[in-house]
């Protein structure tokens, strides 16, 4: 089902199909013939899509999957070709331009962490290079039994630079991160599950998508305020010590802990019905009140 919100138009995007139903946004990378490689358009479209959904509070969960045999072959050759053209001119200015280019690429995946909405990944087949960078920035990862993960950059003579080396050490043991990064070897779905990188492994893509959508619906049924708070606190705690994180939690709670959602949850339990929570305010309405 296509999104019915007239404020949102995703028809102009060429690398991602977007649908929104029952508070769940489903983003599908849609270039299976090219193994969903990440062409320049993708790096602009992904952050724009997720931030647009967040900006308008159009969904409470985002699920990212892809069409075809493989999830993604990672960075497209055209991106490397464009970067190679920039290796000319005065060294300092050339380096400054390259630095800004890498920061822009990083921002595409930072968006997955920065939005208020949980992001779930449903991956099949190859998850290669930049695709590993992307899924490391998501909240939860699920895959099929034929999935494999590769920090491919090492094998092509470069250091992964869009988030894998910064986020993966928070997700799996340091020694394994180093082995995977140094060797560039394939990492199987079974090993990823054993190390806690993925939450669950499924027999095939359809089974996986059905299960992940059920998880997304369960998340979407909860208070969006509570879920957003969970994401904010978990991300903050990853990057700060326990004492700082507890103090931030107390400060957050002093403003965000209000009774309407709690009262609705208790009433719904007593009345044996699903709770009905108000949406988070979209940023348009917040700005219009200034």
Automatic annotation (TrEMBL):
It comes from the Bacteria. Keywords: Fatty acid metabolism, Isomerase, Lipid metabolism, Lyase. GO terms for biological process: fatty acid beta-oxidation. InterPro entries: ClpP/crotonase-like_dom_sf, Ech1-like, Enoyl-CoA_hydra/iso, Enoyl-CoA_hydra_C. Its EC number is 4.2.1.17. Pathway: Lipid metabolism; fatty acid beta-oxidation. GO terms for molecular function: enoyl-CoA hydratase activity; isomerase activity. PANTHER family: ENOYL-COA HYDRATASE (PTHR43149). Belongs to the enoyl-CoA hydratase/isomerase family. This is Enoyl-CoA hydratase. The gene is paaG.
């Amino acid at each position: 089902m296509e999104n019915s919100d007239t404020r949102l138009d995703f028809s102009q995007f060429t690398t991602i199909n977007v649908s929104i139903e029952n508070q769940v946004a489903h983003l599908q990378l849609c270039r299976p013939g090219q193994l969903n490689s990440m062409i320049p358009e993708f790096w602009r479209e992904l952050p724009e899509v997720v931030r647009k959904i967040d900006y308008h509070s159009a969904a409470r969960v985002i699920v990212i999957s892809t069409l075809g045999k493989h999830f993604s072959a990672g960075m497209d050759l055209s991106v490397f070709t464009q970067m190679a053209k920039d290796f000319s001119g005065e060294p300092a200015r050339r380096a400054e331009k390259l630095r800004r280019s890498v920061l822009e690429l990083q921002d595409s995946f930072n968006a997955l962490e920065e939005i208020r909405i949980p992001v779930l990944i449903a991956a099949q087949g190859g998850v290669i290079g930049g695709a590993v960078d992307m899924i490391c920035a998501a909240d939860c990862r699920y895959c099929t039994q034929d999935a494999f993960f590769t920090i491919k950059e090492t094998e092509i003579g470069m250091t992964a630079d869009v988030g894998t080396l910064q986020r993966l050490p928070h997700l799996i043991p340091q020694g394994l991160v180093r082995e995977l990064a140094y060797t560039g070897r394939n990492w199987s779905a079974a090993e990823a599950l054993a190390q806690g990188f993925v939450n669950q492994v499924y027999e095939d893509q359809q089974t996986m998508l059905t299960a992940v959508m059920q998880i997304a619906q369960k998340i979407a049924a909860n208070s969006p305020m509570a879920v957003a708070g969970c994401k904010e606190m978990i991300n903050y705690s990853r990057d700060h010590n326990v004492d700082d994180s507890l103090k931030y939690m107390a400060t957050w709670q002093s403003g965000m802990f209000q009774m309407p959602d709690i009262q609705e949850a208790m009433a719904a339990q007593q009345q044996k019905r699903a709770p009905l929570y108000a949406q988070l305010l979209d940023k348009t309405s917040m700005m219009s009140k200034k």
